[in-house]
Every structure is written in structure tokens, then in C-alpha cells.
Amino acid sequence: MSRQRYFAYKNRQLHVEDVPVELLAKEVGTPFYCYSTAALTHNYHVLKDALPKSALIAFSVKANGNVAVLKTLGREGAGADVVSGGELQKAIAAGIPADRIVFSGVGKTAEEMRLALSVGIHQFNVESEPELEALSGVAAAMGAKAPVTIRVNPDIDAKTHAKITTGTAETKFGVPWTRARAVYGHAGRLPGIEVVGVDVHIGSQITDLQPFRAAFARVAGLIGDLRRDGHQITRADLGGGLGVSYRHDSEPPDAEAYGRMIAQATSGLDVELIFEPGRLIAATAGVLITRVIYVKEGEARKFLILDAGMNDLMRPALYDAHHDIIPVAQPQPNAPTLRYDVVGPVCETTDSFARDRDLPESKGNDLMAILTAGAYGAVMASAYNARPPAPEVMVNGRQWFVVRPRFTLEALIALDKVPGWLEH
Ligand SMILES: *Cc1c(COP(=O)(O)O)cnc(C)c1O
């Protein structure tokens, strides 16, 4: 587990690799995200080594879109899974070759399609018939052929949080299982479309291999049917979704177990395999560092009020997500604990990171680390409550660099423009 190795106490102070967090806090100010280069590349290679050699690992940019993160992974050989023209441009800016980029998402616009075709991406993961027709029109007008997989919805419950499940018939994602062959038939007849494979992604933070196994068995069956229907199926994009441990006491399936399941599920299929992991690579490679502003004694509860809020890290408010929280200064082994509600400063009841959490006694100004925050953290940040979102720092051994500076309040205010009629 990369977290233990790359985010560890040394001389009683939390370090990211060889850099003391306390030093970063002094230099950068709090709150800030901090990523470990070694953890990112470690997580990538553990997965890479567990999967068939020729598999393309297209990192899901929506999990962490910082160009420095993308560049770190791209240099190791990763591709990118993008869900917007913006993410596509970020992946290209990070130097990821277009032929390692796949384009997912239910609402691709004609403009985004043109951009993706003009740079020559590896494939479009098409999610509906109207999208297929639009892509056909755009590609034909450009005299191009769009390489297409169709995202099928296998109607499998991934048994994850309802807000991150995508593979049941109830969600907006993919083409319904029962319509798949008909849609492929249609795709095969459209100009500007080259059917290359099948795509599936059943959800996120999946901690049981069984739903994957069930979905991939359906995909394998479909590939057989499609080949019998005369389609050239040379690729299977099996999506992302493998979960990580957000609690020190839980152990989700590891990359090796996932790899063994993949080998079984795809044996004999003779396809290029593509994966779209996000969380698995980035989550444990990042932390959010924050300072206690106040310890507030409520009527019935004790609150630790942090200088990071839901605008910086939305997962607890959005998905009831759990994040372990630890003090940056290592507590004594037998230090007594107190029970806290750990909250942010934003004026919303949902701006809470933890309820009834046992932590060593804390006081104002203490530095705290919110762990496993490298995925779906900084990318979801907003400026709600006119709070400039937390900057991002990347560590590499003894080196560190601010890979996204803190927005100044001046810059934030300057985004708003006042119409002439209010000027005088
Ligand atoms: C979000 C997403 C992913 C990445 O999911 P993780 O759970 O972070 O691995 C992959 N593919 C698609 C289509 C997605 O929407």
C-alpha cells in the first residue's frame, strides 16, 4: 500500500516522501493538496504489472486532471480517458499521445468530436444512438473515420454507493443491454464510423470483484454475438472502477486479484484490452493538508473546525464518503483521544468531514492530514463562499513544486464583471 510507504511519520512529523508536511504548510499556506510522485507511479505500475502486457491503461482524467499528474503518468506509459474536450486538451498539454486517449461521456458535442478527430484519438466510447449519428455526421463531413466502441450497460449492480453506480438499467450511462446488437447493426451501416470494440464501465469505488466478473462475462458473450453478426471486434474497453481503502482497517481487492479475474474473464477473446482506472491510481497518492482554526465545544459535541471545507474536498458532502484524518505531528503512542465532529468553515450543514471521530486531543493551529484525497478531490473544488480552492503541491523525493498555485482573492473577484449601468 503506497500510502503507508510514501506518507509516513519520520522524526515524529508526517512526511510526503522526503519532504516534511510542516515545511510545506509554512511555505504554501493551508489548506493545500499534496501528491506523491512515487505513489502515483507505484500505483500505476502495480496495476500495469497485474494486467496483460499489451493492455492500454488510460488514466481517468476526471479523477485528477492536474497536468503535472497527467505528465507524471504519461511518462510511465499511461494513456488517458477523457470525458470532455477540456480534459482532452489537458491530456494533450501533458504530452499524452493522442493514440493513447479514449473519449467517454454521455454528452459529447459536435465541437468536441471535431477536436478529437482532428488530433486522432484512439477511440470514441459512444453512449447512445443520437451520439452515434452525430459522430457519423461530423466524421463524414471531415472525410474521417471515427474508431468507435459502444458503451453497453450490462445491467449489473456494482454494489457501490448509489451516486457512483453506473451499470444498472436505471442510470443514464451506456446503451441498454437489450438494444446492444441492434445499435451495433446500425453503427455498422453508418458512414464515418468504424466499429472497433465494446466498452463497459459499471461504476466507481467497487470493492468486490463479483460485479466486474458478471459484467465482463456479459461483454465476452456479446463480443461472440457481434462477431457472428459480422463485426470486426478487436478491442474491449473494460472501464475503471476498482476501489481503494479509505479506512485504515479495510482491504479491498488488490490489483493482482483484479488482474487474475481479468485474465480469466478475457481468456480466448483475442482483443486489445483497455482500462480506465482513476481512483485506483490517484486516490492514495494524495492528501489534503489543513489547519485547525478553532476547537468549539458545542452543547453535545466537540467540533474541530478546519480551514479546508467542502469547496476543497466535496466527497464527504456529495457521497457521505469516509476519509481517515491524522495529525501532522505524530501523537505519543498512548495519547488519549477525544471524540470530535470534524467540520469545515463553509456555511452548510453538509460541510463536515467526519462525525464522532476519535482523534488525539487537538488545539487551534494544529496541522491535520485528510488522507486518500488524491482522486475526486481538487478536480471537484469550487470557490463557494468566495473561498479560493486549495492549491496543489507535488513532491518527488526531496523536491517539491506548487503544481497549481492558490487563486488570489483579487483574481477571484476580477472574474466578476460589472455592467456599465452599475458603473456610475
Ligand atoms: C469515472 C470514470 C472512470 C474512472 O473511474 P474510477 O472509479 O476512478 O476508476 C472510468 N471510465 C469512465 C467512463 C468514467 O466515467
Structure description:
There is one protein chain. The protein is α/β, with parallel strands linked by helices and 424 residues long. It has two domains: 7-35 and 283-414, Beta Barrel (Lyase, Ornithine Decarboxylase, Chain A, domain 1), CATH 2.40.37; 104-277, Alanine racemase (TIM Barrel). Helices cover 29% and strands 25% of the residues. It is built from 13 helices and 21 strands. The strands form three sheets. Strands 4, 14, 15, 16, 17, 18, 19, 20 and 21 form a nine-stranded mixed β-sheet that branches. An eight-stranded parallel barrel has the order 5-6-7-8-9-11-12-13, surrounded by five helices. Helix 7 (129-141) links the parallel strand 8 (123-126) and strand 9. It is globular. The model has no long low-confidence stretch (mean pLDDT 95). Residues 60, 62-63, 81, 83, 104, 201, 204, 239-241, 276-280, 375 line the site of pyridoxal-5'-phosphate.
Please give a quick description of this structure.
With 424 residues, this protein is an alpha/beta fold. It has 13 helices and 21 strands.
* CATH superfamily placement of the largest domain: Alanine racemase
Strand content: 25-35%
Alpha carbon gap, first and last residue? 61 Å
Q: Report the total helices.
A: 13
Q: How many domains make up the coordinates? A: 2
**What is the CA-atom radius of gyration, in angstroms?**
23 Å
Largest sheet geometry: 9 strands, mixed
Write the CATH fold name of the largest domain. TIM Barrel
CATH architecture title of the largest domain: Alpha-Beta Barrel
Per the principal axes of the C-alpha atoms, what is the gross shape?
A: globular
Helical fraction? 25-40%
Q: Any idea of the CATH class of the largest domain?
A: Alpha Beta
